[in-house]
Amino acid sequence: MTRPVRLPTGHRWVVVDVETSGLRSSTHRVLSVAALALREDGSVERELVTLLNPGCDPGPVHIHNLTPQRLAGAPRFEEVANDLLELLDGRTLVAHNASFDYGFLDAEVRRAGMTMPTRQRLCTLALSRRLEIDVPNHKLSTLAAHWKVRQNRAHDAYDDALVLTEVFAHSASLAESLRLPLPVVGCADRRAVYPDRVPRVESPWRNPGRLDPGVGLVQGMKLVISGSTDVPRLSLAARLTAAGLDVMNSVSRQTGVVVCNDPHSSSAKVRRAVADGIPVLTERQLGEMLLHVTPGEPKAAAAPSEVQRPRPATTVPSTKPWHGRRVLIVGGSHADSVLMRSRIVQLGAKPSVNLSAGVTDVLVLDGGELDPRMDRVSARQLPLLTAPDVNSALEPAAPPARGALREPIRPPSQWVAPLLARGEVIDLPPQTTSLTVNASWRAHTEDDAFDVDVVALLLGDDGRVGCDEDFLFYNSPTSSDGTVELSCDGSSEQGVRIELAALHSDYQCVSVSAAIGGDRTFGELGPISVTVDAPDRTIASFVLDAGTTERTMHFAEIYRRAEQWRLRAVGQGYEYDLATLATEYGVTVDD
Predict the structure, then answer these.
(1) Model-level pTM?
(2) Whose CA is closest to 472, among 463, 481, 265?
(3) Alpha-carbon span 421 to 323, nearest angstrom
């Protein structure tokens, strides 16, 4: 560490970084790992740093520079697992995009027949977002530059871990000064254990519908495998795909045939197939039909249509008077707060959900002077505004309510994305290949935390899921092909990562929603900040705060229109629960 620090108490911290052969922990491997156990002063007490021989293609060598030759003499993961787990045991794991690093280590540990001892983790990416540090993006290199931490070798696990140690120390210190809770989350595994998922491969053939025994298999037919198979499931799926069949992981109304060797199976897939009249074959019967597969009808390229285009997302400087300012509202009724936030947005400012480092002004409504954060507001010398100040700013011809308004102590942010109104639609930049929809709300203490689950629905052109697997939630957080994935980055930060360039053409829309557990509502939760982030910048943001008694809410839609991806800020809430929301989109929910 280059500066004396004191890490937050109540945890024993271990900073971790991994380099991997790809992005999916289920199929890719860890190539190198660095784990630094820290003392309270931020110095390294113990460390484990090693390359690993994954026994497979190391993937993007141009990023991590870990060639097969460099890894050839390295130990296998299982050879270092005991030492690594001993180092992790009893400590809170700190990583940048912690769900990624933890997920990969957890997958490797499972392959070794062991169990991760880590019970809690902290994501410095979520911490940086919670602090609203004024940076164009929250990459580790960007934060290192912000905190003036020297980075020698990006994507080197050991150097990244050393850099992250300092970034974490500075960020945690700033959070403490603001009395912002740290985004520590539990690592309890809520995922069920499923059979091998079949990777989704784009089929070039139209779906011919249900199997007709008189015709046999036709290229493009959607096929689902249920239960154990004589040939390993993934090998069988590869053979079927090579024959031109579209292998799916769950049954839907579009499924043409289900393969199951057990004639008495009571699996959910077979039950639904029987209920819907979908033919069920054994693996042997399937093998006989594979000898004579009828050629399919190629999919036609979609013709572009003329549509009225919404405004594109741009970074043109705003002429609004409060552009770049972040305003925190304290006090007031729910209705008053909603009204003031809408007016703040009209002025070009972004409402904040926390007293963060980015807040430039504080709007005090009735009772706001009793907010426990006001002593921090005073210590930071933030300007205090009233409702008349906001109202008069919207009417330039009117005299200010209290004389000239004070300029912010802190300069407005120079990295402000377009602020959308509820229901507004924009085109995403044409070069956007991946993005993350990030949702955050006021950081509560552990005793008062809300049980919020952000979910995603992958919808077809009929506005419904093709199969139950197209519903992503806490127990099934990743799409079958890995192109859409949920992440729980913090206690009040969750997101949905979408690889637009690789998203299957069957999916016309990714709908991002959320549900609150128990008897609590979105009115109690308060405003929700949503940002749509590309890897290098925020594309757009909006605040949803009109919720009252709702238990579920649609946040946003990313959808295709005439070969163009668009974003809609939705903000529509419902009083029913998550199961009902899923059912509305065609998901079969078990009782």
Answers:
(1) 0.81
(2) 481
(3) 15
User: Running DSSP on this structure, what letter comes out for residue 500?
Assistant: G
At 128-175, the pLDDT tens digits run: 999 999 999 999 999 999 999 999 998 899 999 999 999 999 999 999
Give the type of residue at 425: V
Q: How far is the C-alpha of 67 from the C-alpha of 209, rounded, in Å?
A: 46
Segment 556-584, tens digit of pLDDT: 999 999 889 999 999 999 999 999 999 99
**Contact assessment for residue 253 and residue 468, using Cβ atoms and an 8 Å cutoff:** no
Element counts in the chain: helices (H) and strands (E): 15, 25
Please report the sign of the dihedral spanned by the C-alpha atoms of residue 202, residue 205, residue 208, residue 211: negative
Phi/psi at 539 (nearest 5 deg)? Answer: -80, -40
320 pLDDT above the threshold of 90: no
How far is 390 from 204, CA to CA, in rounded Å? 56
Structure tokens belonging to residue 313: 């997302």
Helix, strand, or coil (residue 78): helix
Q: Cα 562–566–569 angle (5° rounding)? A: 145
Q: How far apart are CA 255 and CA 244, in angstroms?
A: 15
Q: What is the pLDDT of residues 469-499, one digit of tens each?
A: 899 998 888 887 789 999 888 889 999 999 9
Q: Which two tokens stand for residue 89?
A: 């045991």
The answer to whether residue 410 scores a pLDDT higher than 80 is no
Q: How many CA atoms lie within 13 A of 204 on its CB side?
A: 5
- If one counts every other C-beta atom within 10 angstroms of the C-beta of residue 574, the result is 17
How far apart (Å, rounded) are the C-alpha atoms in residues 353 and 329?
8
